[in-house]
Amino acid sequence: MKPPSTSAYNTVASEESNDTKSQVIPHTSPISTKEPSDGIVGGETWTRGELQPLAYRDKKFAIAFWVHFLFVIVTSSFAPSIIRDIVQDVQESRSIEILKKNRLLHVLDVDREMEPKLYDGAPGGYSTTQDSNANSLTINHVRSFNTEFGNNTENVNHNSHDYNNRDFDTRNGSDPFGGLDLSRAMSFSVFVIAASIFISLGFLLVALFYLQHHAEEIIKGSFFFIIGYFASKGIHSLLSSGLPDINNFNGSSQGREMIRKANEDGKFAIASIDFILCIFFACYAKAFWKNIPFAASTMRTGVTACKSNLGVFTFAFFTPLLNVLILTVQTMALVTILNFLGAFEEQDAATSKTSVYMAVTLFILSVFWTWEVTKNVSVAIVSGAVGTWWFTPREASSFCSSAVTGSIRRATTYSFGSICFGSLIVTVLNVANDSLIRLRQSKQCLLLFCVVQCLLELLEKLAEYFNKWAMIYVGLYGYDFLTAGKSAVTLFKARGWSSIISNNLVHRALMTVATFISLATGLLVSIIWNLSQFNNSDNQVVQLFSFIYFYIGFVVSLINSNILLSVIGAASDTAIVCFAEASCELEVNHPELSVMMHVSYAQAWPEVDFRREQV
Fold this sequence. Notes:
By secondary structure, the protein is an all-alpha fold. It has helices at residues 10-16, 59-76, 79-118, 128-150, 156-169, 182-213, 215-239, 253-288, 292-308, 312-340, 349-391, 402-412, 416-439, 446-477, 481-495, 498-501, 505-532, 539-581, 583-589, 591-604, and strands at 30-32, 45-47, 613-614. The relative contact order is 0.14. It has 20 helices and three strands. Strands 2-1-3 form a three-stranded antiparallel β-sheet.
């Protein structure tokens, strides 16, 4: 088949490049398959994607998102004064309690000093009259303490500070941190977070090389890793001593026997689950082993496209910081709303609980919606840049190429409404499922809750599947969300690619790579800390902070690596869509990658003829 001379994606270059003479906007041509005997669905046709004119699509949802975000910002502006008042009230209450305790102890000390005088002359005991006098003296002191306290509240903070100092002195000068400089340890925590980000970036650059040249080995290795993990975990569960230690149990022999039996049953139950998961992933690997070469080819294509346009990582790199800042503003807005509802004051319990529950639910909805939007904006940016690289590679060959800048502009403006629409669908289902789980705690109508929850989880998975490929189409062609989703489903149905796009081999391998990057980062940070504390004699404290810093480095690196590697995942998904729809353009512009993808596809599905015919 002769490849088309122009592609729909040439429109991108015509709109974002000064050289427009050679750019032609093609017509929309349906593509059909004529080999039903080879396993392709006969008679199924779809319309080839065409870049849409620049226009704001699904703009109602973009307006709704920005109105909601503006409300959050305005509401959060009242939070600082509210938080300051709350903190001040808490400090005053604590200071009053400390002052009461301090002065009451002083009154009791005075009573103990006067007690021998009251009991003089009664060596063998004391009289009720003397005891009454002692109690009267104590009561009078307490009353005078209350009177004095009521008239001297202005010295609360000063006295509480003295009390705290006196309480600190009772430690007899002991240092629970073994001479460790806490200010230095806190400063090192900031260093750990910053170092983890940049160390993981260095490991990511190395990983990109291996992902491009050893993609197939990495995907296979991810299977071996997860199978080995569950197998070793199951063996460890069998060989471990279990949770309770019956040697330290001082009860009866019957109780010791019950604990021993529960211990053995628990070990076998946990080990059985691990071995079942091990067998499951082994069967899964065997079923999809023949698909690995094609998945590796899509990964290599995605990595090659991203390395030609490294600017696609920019938005994803700043996404965690952006989400943290937005979450801070949303939390401050929640504090303002809760204060307005009187959640920090005593009032009707039923009204307060209902109002607070609704406020927290809306807060969760806002947070999840924002996170979904930022994630899908990144996906649309990547798919748009990879699409330009696929169809017009000369426009996508540098860090800040026109493909990258144009894709960012479209994703954050014209297609932003479609992104908000798709993100809202997934968010609503997610929040509904979360709310249903919390309502199940009431333990009423559990069967009904279980059925509804299963349906919501199914709908959520379908929405995420639909949303994933719809966002690729939104970034590629600028369709509205519903049209994009329908086009993606029609394409894969006509190709018969349901099993191809559902195995997630690439994303599972990327998660394994992110895990190893995080482990290496945490280990390196821990080694740096141990070297900096070489002269510290308290090894126990050093080891404690070493574990803390390893965990911080691991978590920070895992978040950063997963987000940046999700760019590779989105690029791989875009390669699948473009290969299904426009494989001829890949053959013209990237012949080496085209041969690799066609050969691996034929090896995985030899019964399926990939030939297509323009009609």
